[in-house]
Amino acid sequence: MRRIVPILIMFAISVPGDAATRQEPEPIAKLELSQLLRAVSPEHVSATLTFVTDESIAVGVCSGYAPRTCSLSLIREEHGRLETVAATQDFGPSVANLHRAPGEKILATSVPGSAILYSADLSSKQSLQPVSAVSFSGRTVGQWLQGGWRIRQIDPSEPIRSGKGSMRSVSDDVVVFQNGDVMYTEAVDGTPVASFTVASESKCATLAQVLQGGRLYIEGCKENRIVDFSGKTKLKVQRPKGWSSNSSELDRASADGSRLLFNSWSRKVSFFRSVGETAAVFATLGMGAGEEEDNREEIRVIDTNDGNICFERHRSFPMGSETVFHNNAAISPSGRFVAIAADGELSVYQISAVCGRDN
What we know:
The protein has a domain at 132-218: Lipocalin (Beta Barrel). The chain has helices at residues 4-14, 18-21, 271-283; strands at 29-32, 45-51, 56-63, 70-78, 81-88, 95-101, 105-110, 115-118, 125-128, 133-134, 140-145, 148-153, 159-164, 166-170, 174-179, 182-187, 192-197, 207-211, 215-219, 224-228, 233-237, 259-266, 296-303, 309-316, 329-331, 337-342, 345-350. The longest helix is centred in the last third of the chain and has 13 residues, at 271-283. The protein contains three helices and 27 strands. It has a four-stranded antiparallel beta sheet, with no helix packed on it. The termini are far apart. By secondary structure, the chain is mainly beta.
């Protein structure tokens, strides 16, 4: 045993980390998130964001410690600089997601389902009925109900229709929902479009997101793929390892559906820490290891036609240093830009016009 330990130490030291061999992309513009809040250090700011247009980004930030202070800002990129063009402190820490809405308005939704619609200049806001899913344009929204769902126009907030099953995604044209072991796509007026069989909800949670061109991104138990509305596979997708937020809550595709963003969180520890935590679990009957906190994030954009990688960024951070928001990355409507709020900064990256494995 005394011979094995030095070998393990040499192995741990000699194996290079991913970050040491990977060339990370460079942003075209950056802004310290602490500038959006008063007297808060950059490492204690969490953020959620979305592109309103290709040139403007809505960013909601909160301080990490109580009493929490928050703000919502509209940021515009001009000549390599990110400038605040509008802001409000009337923004709460319960907000988890931001979405674009018609007229360059901003829709803020929270985990419990409450929703607030801000004006384009952030000078006023309107409380809405709960929102669980949002179309790309923000014009059509959906709400989860007990045993079913309802979709409606955001303005005015009159119901379009309701249905049974579990809503997965909504666009301005169709709604996608699962009932039993069947995934249905129907027009917003209720006209059936297509359906296909998936794993039963009791066995596996199958996520689905509408893409332009009559396609869906499906995230299932065993594989992830892009399919047509009838379930025919067009492309198998290798998403980053780790967990990510529900696809129906995020603006994660370009307007034409040709590019799709993944934001995955995971945890990686040294061999010795892993052995120690495993031993603690056995010694304390599962109570000794404590909560496993994330310390890695991978953001990736793929071409939905061929699966090539358009953009990729990895980062590591101390466990316990990240605060509550995890929806801190967004892709622009054109698919040419990615915005990321991390490590105390808002960074904007330009994506290559041609996607390839070297991007």
